[in-house]
Design goal:
This protein has 113 residues and is mostly helical. The protein has two domains: 66 residues, no CATH class; 47 residues, no CATH class. The chain has five helices and no strands. The longest helix is centred in the first third of the chain and has 25 residues. 14% of the residues are buried.
Length: 113
């Protein structure tokens, strides 16, 4: 049973990675070699087939973009990886980037008004 769960988790991680890479591409956050490598990772459904040079670019240029902090001044939470595509799109449009907790609290306060 755990092999099935591992496979399903792997598939979900792959989908999330591809969604984040597509969001970075759509927001024009990647250029040059990093853009080509991101497209290759999407096509190959993972970074396993990258050369050592490509892996270095992936690690040094692309992976750091997988980390975003909540823009709420009172919050020190990182944006969840699964929320990154929306956060990247919002950031590209000049909107705030909030973690899921801050989004929840903002929506709750809006309902109370």
């Amino acid at each position: 049973m755990s092999r099935i769960n591992d496979f399903e988790e792997s598939q979900e991680n792959e989908r999330e990675l591809i969604a984040v890479l597509e969001a970075l591409i759509n927001a024009e956050k990647l250029q040059g070699a990093a853009l080509g490598i991101a497209k290759k990772v999407i096509a190959d459904k993972g970074e396993e087939k990258l050369t050592s040079k490509q892996k270095k670019v992936y690690s040094n240029v692309i992976e750091p973009m997988f980390s975003m902090m909540c823009s709420n001044a009172d919050c020190d939470q990182q944006i969840a990886f699964s929320d990154m595509p929306e956060a990247i799109a919002n950031h590209a449009m000049g909107d705030s980037v909030e973690c899921s907790n801050c989004q929840y609290y903002r929506h709750q306060m809006a309902k109370d008004d």
